[in-house]
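Feature request, filed as a ticket because there's no other form

It would be nice if the structure record came with a short human-readable summary line next to the tokens. Right now we just get the raw output. Example of a typical job, pasted below so the devs can see what we mean:
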Amino acid sequence: MKKFNPKFLQAYFICGTQDLQQNQTLPGLLEQALEAGITAYQFREKGINSISDKSARLAMAQELHHLCQKYNVPFIIDDDVQLAKSVHAEGIHVGQDDENISQVIKEAKNTMFVGYSCSTLAEIETANQIEGIDYYGSGPVFATQSKDDADPVIGLAGLSKLVKHSSRPIVAIGGIEEKDLPAIAQTNAAGASVISMITQSNDIKQTVTQMLQAPWHK
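Raw output as currently delivered:
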């Protein structure tokens, strides 16, 4: 098991095949991001154009995990504990409407770290009472096109409020652009998780460097 480190959250890349631009492949894009210095990668395969076949999804997850291992970067699976266990992922991330968080923690114990989406103060306060969660994903900070079921935008003020009341490090998510990184860091978030900022970047190395150079909360 790779012990959780809040530094994993600094340049956190989320991507599935449904997020790719024309002429991109997921392994090719991930390797570019890994070479650029991302600190964590989450395989989120959901929505239109995602891989529905279980065996094909497993094969993709195995290939992506192998790439992450090559660069010593934690590989995180979104909302699929069985898949995460099958490929020996370093982490599992679930949302409020995904698999039951207590069951996820039980299944992940001593094998994976656990991330949990919390977008409201009530969700943070409830999650603070649950043992076994390592970090929270909070947002959307700004409007996002990457999730059809995104929660209402919380803004920088909302993010700052959640960070203040959280007992665990928070990675910000949702509509984040490079220009937003300093302001997000000022909320004392531990990092930023992004999809389109990397998938649509003309210079992935520069984009990831900007993420790494933000003054994240230690």
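Something like this underneath would help us a lot:
The chain has one domain: 6-213.
The longest strand covers residues 11-15.
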